[in-house]
């Protein structure tokens, strides 16, 4: 089992969550579509050669986003990450996945 955490603008939140749930994320016991989410602000500066969804190259940006955490079974991880990247508006979504044990 893995814990997956990512950040997404509110405009694409439901689209990305739907895609990862279809790919197998968010299943715990007799439940599915499980996640935890909270709003915050993400800061970044697009560098030369990047193609930002918002913002300008070389200029510091701060945008409201939602942090989403969920769980993913080992056999679904690649498909879930692929679904996340395919539906996320950023060229490089911020995400992390690490192994966990459900007790």
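^ structure tokens above, recovered residues below v
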């Amino acid at each position: 089992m893995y814990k997956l955490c990512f950040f997404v603008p509110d405009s694409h939140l439901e689209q990305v969550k739907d895609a990862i749930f279809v790919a197998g994320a968010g299943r715990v016991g007799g439940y599915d579509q499980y996640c935890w989410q909270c709003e915050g602000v993400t800061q970044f500066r697009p560098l030369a050669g990047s193609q930002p969804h918002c913002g300008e190259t070389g200029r510091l940006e701060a945008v409201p986003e939602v942090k989403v955490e969920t769980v993913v079974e080992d056999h679904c991880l690649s498909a879930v990450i692929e679904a996340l990247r395919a539906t996320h508006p950023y060229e490089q979504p911020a995400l992390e996945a690490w192994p966990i044990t459900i007790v």
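The mean pLDDT is 95.
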